[in-house]
Each structure stands twice: as C-alpha cells, then as structure tokens.
C-alpha cells in the first residue's frame, strides 16, 4: 500500500519490489533493486525516509522518520524481520538482524553488524566494522557495547543523552512528576494528521 501523507508521496524506483501487505507512507524514496517484504512499514513522519539501492527490508520491519530525525539507509543493507529503526542513519553494507532496534539520532557505520535483538541507543555512533552481539546494547558516541545485565553503566550513559528532550522536546521530569500528559498531547496531535492521508493507486 502506498500512501500520500501531508502532501508527500513515496518515490520508488521502477525496479523495486513492494509486497502487497507492505505500507509505504509519505516522503519516502527507495532506490534501485530494493525489496520491501510482507508486513513491513516505512513511514515518514515530518522528515524524509531515504532507502538506497540493493536493500532488503524484511517481513514486519518498521522504518520511521520523526519530525526531529530523518532516516537514511544507504546501499546494500539488510534490515531483518521485526527490526525497528527510527530517525537514524545506516551506512553502506551494514547488517541489521532480526529484532534489531535503532533509536533516534543513531548512526550505524559502514559494514557494522547489529545481531539478533541488538539495540543501538539514542544518539549513539556505532563505528565502521563494529559488531553488537546478540541481545547486547550499544550506547554513546563512540558507542560502548554492553551486555544487557549492565544496566547501571547503560543508564549512566543513556541518561545524559536525554531521550525525552531529544525525541519529544521535553525535559525529563523530576521524581514524582510526569511529562506524559503533555507528551501524549503533542504526539497524538502529530499522528492525527494521518486522518487526511490518501491511498495511492500504484498504476497512477
């Protein structure tokens, strides 16, 4: 399914394969010989998503851009099943395995690998040829690559990256308070713009 969102239509090379149950929405470009498989979702939410040539976006992967962070996926990249990428840059020849999660402002270097269920956190820079092992977390610039039981070290770095400020423009609340009412008011206001979306006839 191809969708026009906020007046922007996907721009897809004639050689690309998009599966019948995949969704491509808004300001998205996809380069030569790339494939988007069943159930995948590619959605430009306020800034563009750009996917290069010879890329495979596998089943049920999600690739998004946010109002603050475009997403750029360069050439010769595999995005595995159930991967989730938002507002990030992935350089040439990277491998992102099943269940990979890449957060806003992150950069994946050339030939880097993020293995099954690996996480690359907010504003993290994974250098060329780096490997995130199965289930591990990369955090920081340059990235520290840590096992999931290293919560205190992960949080020490992650806290300074300030997820609510970077992603939603809101300061982290003091203990005992919450930003959720304001955050959700902003988020739903942005997402309700999808009510004006229109499906595009691929034959047009």
Question: Could you describe the 3D structure shown?
Answer:
- There is one protein chain.
- The chain is 14% helix and 30% strand.
- It is an alpha/beta fold.
- It has one domain: Hexapeptide repeat proteins (UDP N-Acetylglucosamine Acyltransferase, domain 1), CATH 2.160.10.10.
- The strands form 3 sheets. Strands 23-22-19-16-13-10-7-4-1-24 form a 10-stranded mixed sheet, covered by helices on one side.
- A hairpin with a 4-residue loop joins strand 22 and strand 23.
- The longest helix has 12 residues.
- The protein starts with a strand and ends with a strand.
SSE order:
EEEEEEEEEEEEEEEEEEEEEEEHHHE
CATH architecture annotation name:
3 Solenoid
Q: How many extended strands?
A: 24
Strand order, biggest sheet? 23-22-19-16-13-10-7-4-1-24
CATH class: Mainly Beta
Helix percentage: 10-25%
Separation, N- and C-terminal Cα atoms: 13 Å
Spans of at least 5 consecutive residues whose pLDDT stays below 50 are: none
The oligomerization state is single chain
Structural class: alpha/beta
The percent range for strand residues is 25-35%
Number of helices: 3
The name CATH uses for the topology is UDP N-Acetylglucosamine Acyltransferase, domain 1
Count of all domains: 1
Shape: globular
Mean pLDDT, rounded to whole units? 94
Q: Can you identify the CATH superfamily?
A: Hexapeptide repeat proteins
